[in-house]
Design a protein that fits this description.
The complex is a heterodimer of chains A (280) and B (311). With 280 residues, chain A is an alpha/beta fold. Chain A contains eleven helices and seven strands. Chain A is globular, with a radius of gyration of 18 Å. The chains are: A alpha/beta (280), B alpha+beta (311).
């Protein structure tokens, strides 16, 4: 099994659609709402595999059971090939990785400046709120305790903490891929992912899957049939899909906050040079 | 060791562990277990695995006679022959956490072992019969039943609806005499969560009493609605028949799809087929949103009135 892991709005859906085109021959490529690669934090998935209801459990108890759930998905009759996750690489109260050691991972990372703009649009929030979340070391998706979200809690940590957790993960094999490279050199970058995943698809298959997951095509599919992963208050899921849109959206103070909070990891990933100049 | 006596799902339960159920009477708090109890829950040693289980999930194992539930950091319990439950708490987990799982998974296993079909459903008393709402977590089962309660139709059971099929008739036993709601649903229904007891130690899920107590006799099961919330699919209520109805009913039985180990499979299939044949089943797709709950329940009432309610 392979984790398709990323902080939100970092190319995960693009990769899922690409891999679905490549590997799921029975999937109707015009039906984005039946994407065959599941979200690892799905409540329905947890309830189905464990046979009990996550709503009866605390978040800590859910985290203790997740490794067994993923082991079953990887090795049981379902034999999941890919699972999507936005979680950071963290351990549960027993000191065991929540995502288990049963899979390798493709980790997608994107310039946090673009993430902030895209994530704000996705959640229909102002950029300041999203910058606050990206700095929050305890940030958790779907961590509400006053209602029952469709997804179970996924601990993201801060953006910097999220990226570090995956860059420094030594428990499993991790392939790090920059969103910017997926955009600039799609064929080469996706071919590397395909090889890492152990898939035997040649250049022609990869090009066909890239054409089928072209951003404009995805926008058109969303316009005609909707996309269930769009949040109710957002105007669209597939917004721009470009590199550097932060230049038109962030104020100087927002830029300084993001670079101040995440600069060290941005340097490590080539988004900043040693003099502090922005490179993407 | 002292035990308390409770009543739920048509059974008297004597338990060493405090359960989130209706206690029969404080005078029943005795030095031993109530001899007339249908189910006895004792603290003791519990094995960490069953011998040759037919079903294994990350949370439980099943043989034809036993159900073993294990939750790391909380404890484990084994349910035997639809009557005896042995519990081994683990670490410093609060007793209420074990009680919650005993009252849900534990009693659902008891019902399976007693040959009843514990549907994953909440239900209301409508015109002398039981109308049940089936669905997964988040489908709105408890909220719809509670909304009917607000309109004068008592909640018969919540989350688990035990159904028997005998002599060609399906009947539902009452649940626990209460229902549970998350804070957002409770507030949408105007229910005061300030004085309500929490149903779960961590989450804001609250308990509310129903006038339909756990002591009522079984009532005929009149209708089943399978709930689906969707913003994309066309809303509406559609009758299901034949294999479609059977599959729905089977899929919304507690512990599905892991129930094969519980019982003689033929019995399970026959009972499920009998219920599906004699009780009308409808798939109800509606637009989610607590702000439109009144409209949603109006739709249900219109459907009930045009197809079911007398007068």
């Amino acid at each position: 099994m392979i984790w398709l892991a990323s902080y939100p709005k970092s190319g995960n859906t693009w990769l899922r659609i690409f891999l679905s085109h490549l590997t799921e021959k029975e999937w109707d490529p015009d039906d984005l709402n039946s994407l065959p690669i599941l979200n690892a934090a799905s409540r329905a998935l947890f309830d189905r595999v464990t046979g009990i209801e996550a709503s009866d459990l605390t978040h800590a108890q859910i985290d203790l059971l997740w490794p067994r759930v993923y082991e079953q998905l990887a090795t049981g009759p379902e034999r999941c090939r890919f699972l999507k996750t936005h979680a950071a690489w963290t351990c549960n109260a027993a000191g065991e990785p929540v995502l288990s050691k049963v899979a390798a991972a493709v980790y997608l990372v994107r310039n946090p400046l673009d993430v902030a703009v895209s994530f704000a649009h996705h959640q229909a929030l102002d950029v300041e709120s999203v910058i606050n979340s990206m700095e929050d070391p305890a940030y958790t998706l779907c961590g509400q305790r006053n209602k029952l979200p469709i997804q179970l809690p996924a601990r993201l940590l801060s953006w910097e903490g999220h990226v570090r957790s995956w860059l420094d993960c030594h428990d499993i094999s991790v392939k790090i891929v920059r969103y910017e490279d997926m955009n600039a050199r799609p064929h080469e970058t996706f071919a590397e992912i395909v090889e890492f995943c152990g898939l035997e698809h040649g250049p022609a298959d990869i090009d066909a899957a890239l054409r089928a997951s072209d951003f404009k095509r995805l926008q058109e599919l969303e316009r005609t049939a909707g996309f269930r992963e769009k949040l109710p208050d957002a105007t669209s899921f597939f917004r721009k899909g470009v590199v550097g849109s932060w230049r038109d959206s962030l104020t100087d103070s927002q830029l300084q906050r993001l670079v101040g909070a995440h600069g060290a990891v941005m340097r490590r990933l080539g988004y900043l040079d040693d003099s502090g100049n922005l490179l993407c | 060791m002292s035990a308390d006596t409770y009543f739920a799902y048509g059974m008297q339960i004597s338990s060493d562990i405090k359960l989130p159920l209706h206690r029969v009477d404080s005078r029943e708090h005795t030095a031993g277990h109530n001899a007339s109890a249908d189910v006895v829950i004792r603290i003791g040693e519990v094995p960490s695995a069953l011998v040759s289980p037919a079903t294994i999930t990350p949370a439980f194992q099943v043989t034809s006679r036993e159900f073993l539930f294990c939750l790391p950091g909380v404890g484990r319990f084994v349910v035997q022959d639809g009557r005896n439950v042995c519990v081994q708490p683990e670490g410093a987990a609060p007793e209420e956490m074990l009680g919650l799982h005993l009252a849900h998974s534990g009693l659902a296993a008891v019902l399976h072992q007693r040959g009843k079909r514990p549907l994953h459903a909440s239900a209301a008393l409508v015109d002398g019969g039981c109308v049940a709402f089936l669905g997964r977590s988040m489908a709105g089962k408890s909220t719809i039943a509670a909304a009917l309660n607000q309109r004068g139709y008592q909640v018969v059971c919540d989350d688990i609806c035990p159904v028997s099929f005998s002599g060609g008739i399906a009947s539902a036993s009452p649940g626990t005499g209460r229902f549970e709601l998350w804070a957002d649903s409770a507030r949408a229904l105007g229910l005061d969560t300030f004085k309500a007891a929490r149903a779960q130690p961590e989450g804001e899920r609250y308990c509310f009493a129903s006038e339909f107590t756990a002591f009522e006799p079984p009532i005929p099961l009149r209708r089943l609605y399978i709930l689906h919330q969707s913003r994309r699919k066309a809303p509406g209520i559609r009758r299901q028949t034949g294999i479609e109805a059977f599959q729905c009913l089977f899929g919304y039985t507690y512990f599905a799809p892991h129930i094969a180990g519980f019982d003689n499979e033929t019995n399970v299939f026959l009972a499920t087929a009998g219920i599906a044949r004699t009780v009308p089943i409808f798939e109800w797709c509606y637009v989610p949103g607590l702000d439109r709950l009144n409209d949603t329940v109006d739709t249900l009432m219109q459907h009930l009135e045009s197809h079911f309610l007398s007068g």
